[in-house]
Design brief:
The structure holds two protein chains of two kinds.
Chain A lengths: L11 E5 L2 E4 L2 E4 L2 E4 L2 E2 L2 H8 L5 E4 L4 E2 L3 E6 L1 E2 L2 E2 L7 H11 L5 E8 L4 H7 L14 E2 L2 E4 L24 H8 L5 E6 L6 H10 L3 E4 L6 H10 L3 E2 L32 E5 L7 H10 L4 E4 L11 E5 L2 E6 L2 E4 L12 H12 L2 H7 L17
Chain B lengths: L1 E5 L2 H18 L10 E2 L12 H8 L21 H14 L5 E5 L20 E4 L2 H7 L13 E4 L2 H5 L4 E5 L5 H8 L18 E6 L8 H8 L2 H4 L14
Parallel strand pairs in B: 1-7, 2-3, 3-6, 6-7
Antiparallel strand pairs in B: 4-5
The chains are: A alpha/beta, B alpha/beta.
């Protein structure tokens, strides 16, 4: 009988003895790849009539899509909120180093900063595809300065702002260009937030609610205006109260626009959220859970003092505080540690893989598959 | 015929698998000597429940067969009759089928040779009987309008040409069909009965499938199990030279 076809075709690689994520479950299946694209093995078998050129035994491991980190402030000494001359190389360094944590796409995050910083830094962080050189940049996440004074957390009070005067124009004046931005975190209780939320979502930017003292009603109205994400659930917002669940109540709200889901970031580093709280959120709304690191520049460095935005941060083991206080200042747990910790807390293997990632700009997240 | 009766579905499946394994190895297949395995056909392609998907997920992806050696009737072919004729030709070119493995429908059909099919039929396009459509509805979320009403199938004659035929029958709902197939006469209303005239047929079933048979028949064949089991024990392995 005849052998295989076309020597001109690129080689087919078959990963065997592995578990892959499909349809929100982990299945014992092989993964077939050619030139960095995932193949449908049925088409390969029945139409091309080809077998794999190379097989790789995965030793029973899980073959997971690369993680997406939508909130990371820096790492390995790099601080995205610093108005450096060469921001690009800092971003590239972080992009390259987080690959070993399993992250293949990320949103460099800038904390509350003065306008000069945004004007200087933002144009230097373009959207960029990932590859062996480093994780892809999906766009910048701007966390602040339009946030609540009371819930600013580690953000510097001096640089907080409001958009009551000129709504969206204030936003443009503060940030400069929004070209490379994909997420903005703001507090919806601020005056004229609805205009701002609508203007941002009209430009395809994901609006996230966070660092806020909004009650559930204000949060629901923000979602109706277009907000679709919650920044680090439980942290920097009013605690859940049974007569007014606040932003946390969005997880089970029945006032969201039909067909829309709310997504929420959670820091599962073992510090920012008690495992019981992780489980409550997960059980209430598992499809919306997105694991984030909220990692600070101290990620990957040792204990001691480091810079975050305009402030000093003290690192001790797995904890980072605003120097001289007890306020948590972001996390230094890498994404794979967060995933493992989340797994341990919730004991749901398949779903953890779904939660570490999300495609922005889509009402329902679909996990993008790994390339290479 | 041989009638092999095992206690339940799993044991029947395992017995059949071992038998097929031994048959292939005893055949001493090689680069120039292919063992041709025949299987019944199914639904049109490009459907999630298509026979191609079914065969891929349940068979091909678990073995290292060369895709060029897997021949499946294409329900989407432009000229269906030509597709069927070509299939018959391929079987001939392969030297004929060494072992055909099939099941039985509740109406006694083999492959999609519905009641009334000619017992000397060849590969062709068949309109499915309502019984078969109802049985297939479970693959289409119970929506009868979605179940295909036609299928390409190997004919009764095509299967009769195989050197050996194995029929797998499990479950009480198949019991009446089994009774008609082996205890009544050869009848085109129960097409599996055609194999009474085949020199080498083996029926593998579970207890439930024998519910409509005479006690005498069941006792006779159960009494032969020690002979039947010699066909699967010892279980040969390709690694041993024989």
């Amino acid at each position: 009988m005849r052998g295989g076809q076309g020597a001109a075709r690129a080689p087919v690689l078959q990963f065997t003895n592995c578990r892959i994520l499909r349809g929100r479950a982990l299945l014992r299946e092989d993964l077939w790849v050619r030139e960095g694209r995932i193949l449908d093995p049925e088409k390969l078998f029945f139409e091309e009539r080809r077998v794999a050129d190379e097989q790789r035994d995965c030793g029973g491991c899980i073959l997971a899509p690369g993680f997406i980190d939508v909130q990371i402030n820096g790492g390995f000494g790099v601080d995205f909120s610093q108005a450096a001359e060469d921001v690009g190389s800092g971003v590239a360094l972080v992009a390259q180093r987080i690959l070993s944590h399993g992250v293949t796409s990320f949103c460099p995050t800038l904390v509350t900063s003065p306008p000069e910083v945004y004007h200087k830094v933002l144009p230097q962080i373009p959207v960029k595809s990932g590859g062996p050189h480093g994780a892809g940049v999906l766009g910048v996440h701007l966390e602040g300065p339009f946030i609540s004074r009371e819930k600013r957390g580690a953000h510097p009070e001096a640089h907080l702002r409001s958009f009551e005067a000129n709504a969206f124009q204030d936003v443009l004046d503060t940030y400069g260009s929004l070209d490379n931005v994909c997420i903005v975190t703001l507090a919806p209780e601020l005056g004229r937030s609805h205009e701002v939320i609508q203007a941002l979502t009209a430009r395809g930017i994901c609006v996230s609610l966070g660092h806020s003292v909004a009650d559930l009603r204000a949060a629901e109205e923000a979602v109706q205006s277009g907000a679709s994400f919650i920044t680090h659930l439980f942290n920097a917002m009013l605690p859940f109260h049974h007569r007014d669940p606040g932003i946390v109540g969005l997880l089970t709200s029945d006032r969201l626009p039909p067909g829309r889901h709310i997504f929420y970031g959670m820091i599962a580093d073992g510090m920012h959220t008690n495992p019981a709280a992780l489980r409550i959120a997960h059980r209430a709304h598992p499809q919306g859970l997105v694991l984030v690191t909220d990692a600070v520049p101290a990620l990957g460095l040792g204990n001691g003092r480091h810079t975050l935005g305009q402030q000093e941060v003290e690192v001790d083991g797995l904890t980072a505080y605003v120097a001289g206080t007890q306020t948590l200042s972001g996390s230094i747990a890498p994404m794979d540690v967060c995933v493992r910790h989340f797994l341990q807390a919730t004991v749901t293997l398949g779903k953890a893989s779904c939660c570490g990632m999300k495609t922005l700009r889509q009402p329902c997240g679909e996990a993008p598959m790994v390339r290479n | 015929m041989r009638l092999v009766i095992l206690d339940n579905y799993d044991l029947a499946s395992e017995w059949a698998a071992k038998y097929i394994c031994n048959r292939i190895i005893q055949f001493k297949p090689g680069q120039d000597r292919y063992f041709t395995l025949g299987l019944p056909t199914g639904l049109p392609r490009n459907h999630p429940e298509s026979y191609h998907s079914y065969m891929w997920n349940n068979f091909f992806k678990h073995i290292d067969i060369d895709p060029n050696n897997a021949h499946i009737l294409d329900g989407n072919a432009a000229d269906l009759q030509a597709e069927c004729d070509a299939f018959e030709k391929k079987i001939k070119e392969a030297g004929g089928i060494d072992l055909f493995v099939g099941g039985i429908g509740p109406d006694g059909h083999i492959a999609f040779n519905e009641p009334g099919s000619s017992l000397v039929s060849r590969t062709r396009l068949k309109t499915l009987a309502m019984d078969t459509i109802l049985a297939n509805a479970k693959y289409f979320d119970g929506d009868l309008s979605k179940v295909p009403t036609m299928a390409l199938t190997v004919g009764v004659g095509t299967v009769m040409d195989a050197r050996e035929v194995m029929i797998l029958i499990t479950g009480a709902h198949k019991a009446f069909a089994l009774y008609k197939a082996i205890e009544e006469g050869v009848n085109h209303m129960w097409t599996v009965s055609a194999f009474q005239q085949h020199p080498r047929t083996i029926f593998v079933c579970d207890e439930d499938a024998t519910l409509e048979l005479r006690v005498k028949t069941v006792k006779y064949f159960k009494g032969l199990m020690h002979v039947h089991n010699k066909l699967v024990d010892p279980l040969y392995s390709m690694k041993e030279g024989k």
